[in-house]
Design goal:
Length: 124
Amino acid sequence: MSVTVTADDVRTVALSLPDTTEKLAWGQPTFRVAGKIFAALGDDDVTMGVKCPVEDRAELIASEPEKFFVREGHDDNYAWLRVRLAALDDVAELTTILTDSWSQVAPRRLLAAHPELSPPPADG
């Protein structure tokens, strides 16, 4: 049975992260920590954008093109990745993606206060 992840799920999970606020930008809901955007709902409510290191994007898109994409000409030079909500397995996967994005922009003091939200150390 497939569970469809919705824009409401994005809002609920994003706002559950420490010091997160919601603010409209470009007519779309954005989610910010310490004033920096870590996620945004698409104008269609079926996609979201999240922070993602540029060097990691191609691998993610190649491994799951039905789930991850970039808007050509729009996201090219930004550490940003788009996600099709319907392609996500469940809210747990959504939570992992949003938490990872949050941890990329959260200030060090917040990361230190919430070690459970910090990404695991990279191998190697």
